[in-house]
From TrEMBL:
It holds the Pfam family Ribonuc_L-PSP. It comes from Tersicoccus solisilvae. This is Reactive intermediate/imine deaminase. InterPro entries: RutC-like_sf, YjgF/YER057c/UK114.
């Protein structure tokens, strides 16, 4: 779905978990697409996966982000910025490895998106990582 430059368009897909609270999976407006923070939840089962394994959680989280990007008429290639939220500093290397594999596989131009990584508490104890994204559309 390509968003109108003036209208705000809510993006939804069954390829990522449905929001559990009062927010959209993604919102597009004016050629931009903002993806809400995604976690390591399997959209088919609505269960968090890979307790204690940040690399597997990062891969699942990025797959959820990608599904919403595609539902919004965008792609990983179109991402300007990823924001990564980790619960533990010692998980950075494993997250970065999964992130690097994902970006290498999904950004054929080699023009890497910007990224910020911060360390925080997350809403569910099993979550080791949450990721959001800002992309262009069209």
């Amino acid at each position: 779905m390509t968003a109108s430059p003036t209208a705000k368009t809510v993006i939804t897909t069954d390829g990522a978990p449905a929001p559990a609270h009062t927010f959209s999976q993604g919102v597009a407006k004016g050629g931009l697409l903002q993806i809400s923070g995604q976690g390591p939840m399997d959209p088919a089962t609505n269960e968090y996966i890979a307790a204690g394994d940040v690399k597997a959680q990062t891969a699942r989280t990025l797959a959820n982000v990608k599904a919403i990007l595609e539902a919004g008429g965008s792609s990983v290639e179109d991402v300007l910025m990823f924001r990564v939220y980790l619960t533990k500093r010692e998980d950075f290397a494993a997250m970065n490895e999964a992130y690097g594999e994902f970006v290498e596989a999904n950004v054929p131009s080699g023009a890497l998106p910007s990224r910020t990584t911060v360390f925080v508490d997350l809403p569910h104890e099993v979550m080791l990582v949450e990721i959001d994204a800002l992309a262009v559309t069209g």
